[in-house]
Amino acid sequence: MSNPSTFGGRLKQLRQEHGLTQDTLAERVGCATQTIRKIEGGQRRPSYQIAAKLAEELGIAPEERARFIRFSRDEPGEEQIDLPTQTGSDTQPASLLPPTGNLPTPLTRLIGREREVISARQLLLRGDLRLLTLVGPGGVGKTRLAVEVAAGLQDHFDDGVVFVNLVPIHDPDLVVPTIADAVGIGEEGGRPRLERLKEALRAKRLLLVLDNFEQVIPAAGLVADLLSSCAGLKAIVTSREVLRVRGEHVFAVHPLPVPDRKRATASELLSQSAVAQLFAERAVAARPDFAITNENAPAVAELCQRLDGLPLAIELAAARSTLFSPEAMLARLGSRLQLLTGGPRDVPARQQTLRNTIAWSYDLLTDSEQKLFRRLCVFIGGRTLDAIAGVCTAAGDLDLDIVDGLASLVDKSLLWQDATASREPWFLMIETIREYGLEQLERSGEAQATRRAHAHYYLQLAEQSEPHLWGGAQEQWLDRLEQEHDNLRVALAWHIGQEEGIAAALRMAGCLWRFWDVRGHWTEGLQWLEQALSSRAGPAPAHRWLALHGAGNLSLDLGEYARAKAYYEESLVVTQRLKMQHGIANSLLNLSQVTFYQGDLRHAIALQEQSLAIHRALGNNIGIALALHNLASMLEQQGQYDRAATLAEESLARYKELRDSRGMAWALQDLALLAHRRGAHERARTLLEECRAIYDKLGAKNDLARVLNDLGELVDDQGEYESAGALYEESLRLAAELGDRRCQAAALNNLGRLAHRTGGQERAVLLCNKSLSLQRDLGDKRGVAMALESLSKVTPQQGAHRRAGALYRERHSDPHIKLLRI
Q1: What are the tens digits of pLDDT across the range 590-644?
Q2: By the 8 A CB rule, do 324 and 316 touch?
Q3: What 8-state DSSP symbol labels residue 580?
C-alpha cells in the first residue's frame, strides 16, 4: 500500500487516479520509467523541472503547484513561489530559480520532433561527446528542441541543467559573465571570471544549454576552453551558425516534412503530418472553432508546403486563423513575409515576424556575404556550384571566393547542401528566406543584371545539353535538366519577356523539346514553345526551325494531329527555304508519322523512305536509326514481317553504335512485337522486359506506358488474365497522367477485350466505347478501326445483332482500314 502522506505515495495515488502507468507518466514528463519508480518508492526526490512537469501532467491547479513542488522536494517554507512559465529565450530572475534548474517551461507541446529528441539525447549520453550544436535557420525551432532534449536528461546530470539566454548580448566578451550569472558564480576581487567559472564547475556534472549563439560566435573558443577544463560539463548550443571548434558535434535541425496536397484528407493530415498537426493546434489556440476538414485539408497541406514546413512560419500563419481561412491565406501568400506577422508578444521581437527573423541572420553577414546571398536568391529550387559561379560572379565585383562564401552561408543556415545529390554539389534554400533575399536584391539595384546573367547561363546549359539528349550520355543530361527544371523555367520566362531576347527563347525552347518529350512534360513544353514562336518579329527563320520541330512533336505526343501537322509543314517550308537538308529530312520524317496516325499508311511510308534516303546521304546516324524504326513499325502494320525485322535489326545496330539506350529500346520493342506476331512469346517477353527496364531508368514515362500495354497484350494472349489486367491498368494510369490519349485509348480497348473474355460484359462494352470515342476524337483512323473491331466482338449477342453488323460494315467501309491487320 502506498502512503499518501509521503510524496511518493501521493504521486502514485494521483497517477492511478489519472489512469496512467509508470511508463506513460515517464514518457509525458520526459524521464526514465525507473525515475518514476524510485520517486514513488521514496528512493529519490524529483528534480525541480520534473516536479514542475509532474504537476502539469497530473492536473495540479496553478495556485497549488508551488506547494506541490516544495512537497516533492521536501523544501521548507509556506511562502508562494512562482514557477518558470516563459518559453523561447527569456528566463525568470535567478532569485526565483534553483541555481542549477532554470529550464524554461514551455507553454505548448513539441510536435513532430520525436526522432530528433531521441537522437540528440543519445548523443549527449555518449561519454566522448561534450558539445552538441543544434544548427538551423531562424524559426526552425532550435530553442524549443534544446529545452525538450535537456528536460529529459536532468536525471543524468547530478548538478542539473542550466539554461543560458544569449539573446540580449552581442559582445563575445559578455558570454562568460552571462554563463557565470546563470550558474550563480558572482564577481570576486578582480579574479578572472572564466577562472572562477572553471574552478566552480570542475567537479560538477552539469549540462549547459547555450541559446542563440550566432551573434557571439567569436566566443566559441571560450566555450571549448571551459568544456576542456571541466570533465563533467557538457553543453547544448543553439545557433544559426556552427561554432567550428574541436569536439563539436553538429546536429542539423531542418524544417518539418510537408504533406502531399494531392492526397490530403483530414484524417491523413491529423494522423500522419506533424506540420499539419502543428498548424491545427496553433490555429485552434487562436480560434477555438477551427478544425481541419476534408474540404480545407488540401489548402492546409499546400500552406505547409509553401511555408517550407518552417515551424515559426506555420505558427504565424495559424495565428491568422482569426481572420482568414486556409484557402484565403493561400490567396495572400504571394508575399509570405507580409502575411506572417503578429507573433506572440512574449517572444523576442525578431520572432514576432518572419522578416525580422531572417533579417537577424542577414545582418550578421559581411558585406560580401550579403552580396553573394542576395544573388543566390535569383535561383529557384536549387543551384549547382558551376551555376552559382557563372551567375554570381558575372558582374566581376564579388570580392569573395565562391567556395568560401558558400561554406559560410551553409554554416549560417541560410543555405544548405543536399546530402542526397549524387554528383555535382546541389545547394538549396528555404523559399521564405529566398523571398527576403529577393527583396534585398531589388533594393541593391543588382536585380536586372543578376537575372540577365541567370537567363544567359541557362540558355548556354540548354544549348550544351541538346546534342547529348541522343546517345550514351542522355540519362545523365535528362537527370540534370530535370533537376534544373525550375531554373530553366525562370530563364525561359525572362527571355520571352525581353524584346531582344526572343531569338534566345526560340533557341532555348528548341533545345529543350526532347527533354520535355522524354520526361513527359508535354503540355508545359508545348506552352513554352508556342510562347516563343508567337513572336514573328526579329528572329531569323533558322531560329524557328528547331522550335517548330519540337512543337510538332509534343503536339503529336498529345494526340493533336492537325496542330502537329501544321507545325511540321511550316518547319518543312523553313528548312527548304534555307536548304537545310537535315532539317528537311526531319520534317519529312515527322510528317510521315502524323500521316500514319491519320490513316494514310502508303503515303506515310513514302514520306518515311524519302527521309531515310536524305539521312543516309548525309551519313546522319541518328536520323537513319529513327527512320528505320518508324518504317519497321509501319511495315509491320502491312504484315511485311520479314522486311520489318530487317529494318528493326539495322535500327538496333545504329542505336547501339550511338549508345542511345532509348533508341535501342524502340528497336527492341519493334522486334518484340514481331516475335509476338510470329508466336515466339518467350523471346517477345524477354525483349519487352528489357525495354521496360530501359524506359524506367530513363524516366521515359510515355514509352513505359506503351511497353506496359504491349506486355499486357502478350500475357493476355497466354491466358495470364490477372497479370494482363494489372499491366493495362498501370499503362492507363501513366498515360492519363501524361495526357497521352493514344495510349489511353489502346489500354481501354485492351481492358474492354479482357473484360469480355472474363465475363464482365457490361464493363467490356463501356470500356470499348470509351476507347472508340477517344480514337474518333483524335482522328486516328487506325485506332478507330481497332476499337470498332473490339466493340463488334464484345457487343452482347442477345438483341444486339444489328449493332454488331453495323459496326462490321463501318469497319470494312473505311478504305484505310484495308491496309491494317486487325
Answers
A1: 999 999 988 888 999 999 999 999 999 999 999 999 999 999 999 988 889 999 9
A2: no
A3: -
Q: How many CB atoms lie within 10 A of CB 606?
A: 14
Element (H, E) at 527: helix 522-533
- Is 198 in contact with 204 (CB distance < 8 Å)? no
Amino acid, single-letter form, for residue 565: K
Which amino acid is present at 103? L
Contact 651, 628 (CB under 8 A): yes
The answer to whether 294 touches 266, Cβ cutoff 8 Å, is yes
Residue type, 341: T
Strand ranges across the sheet with 248-252: 161-165, 206-211, 233-239, 131-135, 248-252
Q: In the numeric block, which cell numbers belong to residue 700?
A: 521515359
Does residue 3 carry a pLDDT above 70?
no
Percent of the chain with pLDDT over 90: 47
The SS3 of residue 528 is helix
Nearest to 50 by CA among 150, 172, 168: 150
| Residue 657 confidence (pLDDT) | 93
Nearest to 357 by CA among 545, 260, 212, 234: 212
How far is residue 208's CA from residue 764's CA, in Å, rounded to a whole number?
72
Given a cut of 70, whether residue 101 has pLDDT beyond it is no
Residues 478/698, Cβ–Cβ less than 8 Å: yes
Compute the Cα dihedral for 522, 498, 457, 567 and give only its sign. positive
197-216: burial string, b at 16+ Cβ within 10 Å, e else = bbeebeebebbbbbbbbbbb
- Catalogue the long-range contacts made by 186-195 (C-beta closer than 8 Å, 24 or more residues apart): 194/222, 194/225, 194/226
Strand 131-135 and strand 233-239: the pairing is parallel
Query: What does the alpha-carbon distance between residue 474 and residue 659 come to, in Å, rounded to a whole number?
Result: 9
Reading the block at residue 663, the C-alpha cell is 533508341
Grid coordinates in use for 349?
521581437
Q: Which residue has the cell 511540321?
A: 568
Q: Is 132 helix (H, G, I), strand (E, B) or coil?
A: strand
Cα–Cα distance, 327 to 358 (Å, whole number): 26
Q: CA dihedral defined by 387, 390, 392, 394, rounded to 10 degrees? A: -160
d(CA 251, CA 248) in angstroms, rounded, equals 10
Cα(590)–Cα(597) distance, integer angstroms = 11
Beta partners for 417?
427
R_g of the chain, CA atoms, integer Å: 35
Q: How many residues does the chain have?
A: 822
**Tally of CB atoms within 10 A around 337:** 18
Q: N- to C-terminal Cα distance for the chain?
A: 88
Identify how many contiguous H helices and E strands the chain contains and give both numbers.
40, 8
Q: In this structure, are residues 373 and 379 in contact, taking their beta carbons and an 8 Å threshold?
A: no
Is-contact 809 793, C-beta < 8 A? no
Q: What angle do CA 557, 474, 426 make, to 5 degrees?
A: 110
> What pLDDT is recorded for position 30?
75
* pTM exceeds 0.85: no
Contact 336, 305 (CB under 8 A): no
DSSP conformation letters of 79-112: S--PPP---TT----GGGS-TTB-----SS---S
Please say if the pLDDT value at position 409 is more than 60. Answer: yes
Give me the DSSP letters along 540-559: -HHHHHHHHHHHHHHHHHTT
What is the C-alpha separation between 221 and 244, in angstroms, rounded? 9
How many whole angstroms separate alpha carbon 548 and alpha carbon 40? 81
For 79, counting Cβ atoms within 10 Å of its Cβ (0-12 exposed, 13-18 middle, 19+ buried), the class is exposed
- Give CA–CA dist 15/8, Å, rounded: 11
The closest of 462, 304, 299 to 387, measured between CA atoms, is: 462
What does the buried/exposed string (b/e) look like for 762-788 if buried means 16 or more CB atoms within 10 Å of the residue's CB?
A: ebbbbbbbbbbebbeebebbbbbbbbb
SS3 per residue for 405-420: HHHHHHHCCCCEECCC
Helix (H) or strand (E) holding 250: strand 248-252
